[in-house]
Amino acid sequence: MQTINLSNEATKTRRITVIDALRGFALLGVILMHMLQRFGIFSGVRPDESLFPMLDEAIQWLSQNVIMGRFINIFACLFGLSFFIQMDSAAKKGIDFRKRFLWRMAILFVIGVIGNCFFTADILSIYAVFGIIMVFLFPLKNWILILIASLLLLGAPRALMTGYDRIVKTEQVSETSQPARRPAMSNTAKPSFINSAKENLTFKLQGKLNYQFGMYGRGYITLALFILGLVIGRLRFFEDVQTKQKRNIILFFGFALSSAVISLILNLIPQEPLNFRMLMTPGFDISFALLAVTALNDIQIVIFSGALALGFIVLYQIKSIGKYLNVLTPYGRMGLTNYEMQGILGAFIFSAWGFGAIFGTWGTTEVFALGLVVYAIQIIISHYWLKKFRYGPLEWLWRSGTYLKWQPLRKA
Q1: Long-range contacts made by residues 247-251, C-beta under 8 angstroms, separation at least 24?
Q2: Would you list the DSSP string of 73-107?
Q3: pLDDT tens across 326-365, in order?
Q4: What confidence tens digit (pLDDT) does each residue in 294-306 have?
Q5: Over 70: is that where the pLDDT of 183 sits?
Q6: Cα–Cα distance between 392 and 373 in angstroms, integer?
Q7: What is the torsional sign of CA 380, 59, 206, 118?
Q8: 39 vs 27, 42, 248, 342, 361, CA distance in Å?
């Protein structure tokens, strides 16, 4: 009996470790992609002539086909899983956690708005809104949740908006057919954090909302992943992930093969319908072909993300490899702090009011390597921080705010 209890405790600990390590892995792709995009910041300078043209090309291919949209999908799915874990844990104690979670999302929204002052693509405020929606979706049965997630992945909101635009044709279409012009703030005001924050919370916020909830509809994919994370939690996937290694391998190959097949189909389609930028153009008449191809592309990316996550889990379960991947666990436990620090550092590195004059001239390979360096430093800091403290700084503030009481921070 004693051995069984120890085994169960080990499995539980391992499960939590796997989730944290996977979150840390997801944030690796997030910082690398944001570095390559220079955190969406134009500092007024251009990159110098490439020092590593071949390496630049390889990294660009890697970013387009492996990183972009894939790692952030894992991060989003784990948010839905964490939501289930909190709700389920409270339910087992006889506690209704819904009101507390809504308040928790309000705090996250504020954190996201502050983060948005530094980095316009900060997604925490969007996550907070979706977190509120998840509270109302929580009572639904799994088959209904899967149906909702499937409709979102198939582009149902996009199709509805397209149909509505075709039915309602007014003079407003011609008036808004021209893309909004960016105010020349950099020409009228001295570069500063205040001016940058104003721009992030006004003009750039409009572009962000259009990207998330317009025809491109990135936000709908995120909500679908939240829902799938909830379903994965209900299926207790991670509770027996350590004992069902064969299942994990089969799922990995299944996801990888499915992603490859869909990718092959997309490559056979003429390139014209694949111009996804058309979705961001106000007033553009979206064709059915573009809607179908966009939905297929979204599904392929989500399946690819699943293959990445399962591949990581399979490798993590191999002792000789897992002991090295386990270094990501502290990073994942401090996921909120590390994500926000990525955005703040990105602002300082690339903004005109920061060090944009220096790092803005760096090429693809250089900023990619810089992302790896920042990530490695964050791993080291996370490792030593959690040796002395129970939570990351933002995690502690978030938890204290959730319960309206200062939580113990330093370990005994």
Answers
A1: 248/310, 248/313, 248/314, 248/317, 249/314, 251/306, 251/310
A2: HHHHHHHHHHHHHHHHHHHHTT---HHHHHHHHHH
A3: 999 999 999 999 999 999 999 999 999 999 989 989 999 9
A4: 899 999 999 999 9
A5: no
A6: 20
A7: positive
A8: 14, 9, 34, 9, 14
| DSSP-assigned states of every residue in 344-359 | HHHHHHHSTTTTHHHH
CA separation for the pair 29, 71 (Å, rounded):
5
pLDDT tens-place string over residues 110-156: 999 999 999 999 999 999 999 999 999 999 999 999 999 999 999 88
Within a 10 A sphere around the Cβ of 215, how many other Cβ atoms? 23
Judge contact between 294 and 156, C-beta under 8 A: no
- Residue 15 confidence (pLDDT): 44
Q: Report the residue count for the chain.
A: 412
With a CB cutoff of 8 Å and minimum separation 6, the contacts of 154 are 295, 299
- How far is Cα 103 from Cα 269, in angstroms, rounded to an integer? 47
Q: Taking a C-beta distance cutoff of 8 angstroms, is the pair 27, 75 a contact?
A: yes
pLDDT at 1 over 50: no
Given a contact cutoff of 8 angstroms between Cβ atoms, the answer to whether 317 and 22 are in contact is no
Task: Give the DSSP H or E segment for 59.
Answer: helix 53-62
Are 124 and 339 contacting, i.e. CB atoms less than 8 angstroms apart?
yes
Provide Rg for the chain, Cα atoms.
22
Quick one: 184 exposed, middle or buried, by C-beta within 10 A (0-12, 13-18, 19+)?
A: exposed
Instruction: Tell me if 220 sits within 8 A of 145, measured CB to CB.
Output: no
By CB atoms closer than 10 A (0-12, 13-18, 19+), residue 388 is exposed
Q: Residue 231 and residue 307: Cα distance in Å, rounded? A: 17
What would the two tokens of residue 384 be? 């030593």
Q: Is residue 80 left, alpha or beta, with left meaning phi > 0 and alpha meaning psi from -120 to 50?
A: alpha
Q: How far is CA 213 from the centre of its chain?
A: 16
CA distance 25 to 310: 12
Nearest CA to 339 out of 125, 67, 27 is that of 27
